Known about the structure:
By secondary structure, the chain is α/β, with parallel strands linked by helices. Helices cover 45% and strands 14% of the residues. Strand 3, helix 6 and strand 4 (172-178) form a beta-alpha-beta unit. It starts with a helix and ends with a helix.
Amino acid sequence: MNTNQIEDIKKLSAKIRLDILKMIAYVGQGHMGGSLSIVEVLSVLYGKCMQYDIHNPRDDNRDQLVLSKGHAGPALYSALANIGFFDKEMLYTLNQGGTNLPSHPDRNKTPGVDMTTGSLGQGISVAAGIAKGLKMKDSENYVYAIVGDGELNEGQCWEAFQFIAHYQLDNCIVFIDENKKQLDGTTEEVINPYHIVDKMKAFGFHVQKVKGNSEEEIYNAIEEAKTIKNKAHCIVLDTIKGQGVLFYETMLANHSVKFNQEVITENQKAIVALEQFIEEGL
């Protein structure tokens, strides 16, 4: 990416992050930490790498994204709104009665959502099936799957990884959001994942580990993966839960945040800072 493209992607990251803060604040509670940690990968995918048509969300000639960690739906919704799949005002209906933006993504409700997810472990299996189907059709499109590190506690993830590697589904790029926390503690405390990179290599994947807040590193890793054929691909994102907002990064229980007066105040400070960055640029 050239300098202008990098600046555009970083601004998109800021816009996605800003809308996450605004929409969850409007509701008064929501999955903040795990939404913020995948902002940069979403901005790179939708801002640079993915093929899609905002006027035809079911276009057969599109790349697809499966957000296996479906509780990070607010991040996906923010990305989709910012690239034009629907009006940004719709973001403020998150989790409201009759909404088309439920807590976890639903492909039958939200324009741009490729797969319904939320029951952890199942999304990566669906991504594997989509990728296999595309191979059978001789399609050149890609499937991108985002999996949480806490989600790796589910055995179904590893069955799906075996399938992807066995069938050499080089059209499926798996991102593991290694933000090191899950709902009720750190991943090390709950079930120690040990060395995710080594485990994925042992399962037959070509593996890269990048800084999860670096749009450049994420983009370069995707480009490298696409040059390696007949091999499963995994990009491990070294992230922080609550990424990009220091208040949430340092909050102990930031999986699902309820808004008290302190949170309201700090959230507004972060909103102001992001709005200033978007206006002034790098």
